[in-house]
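Q: I have two molecules that I believe assemble together. Could you output structure tokens for the complex as a whole instead of separate predictions?
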Amino acid sequence: MKEQDARQAVQAAISQVAPDVEPDDLEGCARLRQDLELDSLDFLHLVETIAKTTGVDIPERDYPAVATVDGLVGYLAGHS
Amino acid sequence: MPSLGADMEHGKVVEWLVKPGDYVHKGDIVAAVDTDKTVMDIESFEEGVVAEFLVDIGDTVNVGTPIARFTPTPADRSPAPSEPTPTVASAGEPRPAPAVVEPKVPSPPAVKHGSKISPPVRHLAHSLGVDVGSIRGSGLNGEVTRADVESAAAESTARGVPAAPGAQNGPAYQRRMRSSPRARRLATQVGVDLQEVVGTGPDGAITESDVRRAAGAATGKRVEAMASEPPRQAEPAVDAAPRSRKEIGGDKAATLRQAIGSLMSRSKKEIPHYYLANTLDLATAMAWMQSQNQQRPVSSRLVPSALLLKATALAAKETPEMNGFFTRGTFHPSASVHLGVAVALRHGGLVAPALHDAQTLTLDELMDKLRGLVSRARAGRLQRAEMTDPTITVTNLGDLGVDSVYGVIYPPQVAMVGFGKVLEQPWAHNGMLGIRHTVAATLSADHRVSDGLRGGRFLSRIDELLQRPEEL
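A: Yes, here they are, computed for all two components at once.
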């Protein structure tokens, strides 16, 4: 997956999980839990949404790698 | 207006989800009510046909005030569909016929419970097919008399005819789907009928993306549909929702803040809190959960909160002094554990709806219900039963980063459990130092009901239960 597509998929998934997060807040370095205030259920929902839309299943052991917006984008770009 | 929580004094009807003439089953969702805390769906306690609304959208009334009047189902109501009449439910439009039938009674109380009635009169009501709950008693102390029953019977026969066409519009409402306010707003914007949308959210709830998908699919279909059936009127209830929700959105945070403030002040004034803390060893629980999650598709993965909540529910079941209500100077333990879960709302504030009978749920069921509960809480879509009085509450603030949290007890409950962040920490075990997952569990409990010894036992019990995660 191209990085551009990955970023779009991530943005779409985040806006579905947390509709009130402003697109402006989605900076690459934003941390999903601390900065975007996703709790563990939101995060699970995000991983689920991404699996559905991109086919990339992020196993639990890789969660630390996808803790930021950029981390997640990079992970998707590298795994599909 | 039902009470939707111990601290609720009044509520505002923000949306009617039925309209006069609709046939309503017991338990059907009939309206959305704005308390100071959140917007909640309320269900009908009775079965019957909606005769009229007694309050308009936007009206704030005290708990106990009748908000709608039902008539019992006329037994001879013909099921033959008649022409769909334009819907009549929206606020401001003239009231339908029933209001004319009995102009002398501007607001008959639709109090369903507690109406007095003697057995012979009840029998008469039963044989005439009249719902005694819907009758205004004219006798002594509001007792329902024989004459009341007879006039109610006559009235419902008279109303049977006008009510029927409306009721035929009903099926769409009867299979009304859950949907988020955002989804409804979007549906209105793009002109999608929610009845035709397949929901993919929790419990089949219609999400925003479902609406988008339907909007795409419908563009082609719409043209044919227009030819074969008259264009549907926008359903007023659905249509009214986004507006009213938006209007209340602005001051929502402020009123919620006030409600929380006054409840917490009351708690700190009335309840002699004592506080305990314990660090729980989660090594076994986390290892078990991770191995479970490896074998599971992402949609059924567990989160640590689910284990913590289940262990708390089981421990609360075993420790009656933590689980129940303190009212009128006495403690009333609860037989079941309705576990309140504090949910932070994104625009600020929090609500703590209940996972009912949490001690009986499997982890998967609990996970499922937890996800549904949290998403509905955030969407402002809690149901009355979920808000009515959890018997003990858990705050899981650690999920968003703090190491430990000492909660304030929600009156009339007597205990609040707090979980901090799940951390990796150095941990001495059998004379060896290792790195383990731990969590700080805290208890705020009511000294009128229990002492530190009992509270400490409760916390250690949670710890013990977490050491055998496979049995949770």
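A: One point stands out. Chain B has two domains: 1-175, 273-471.
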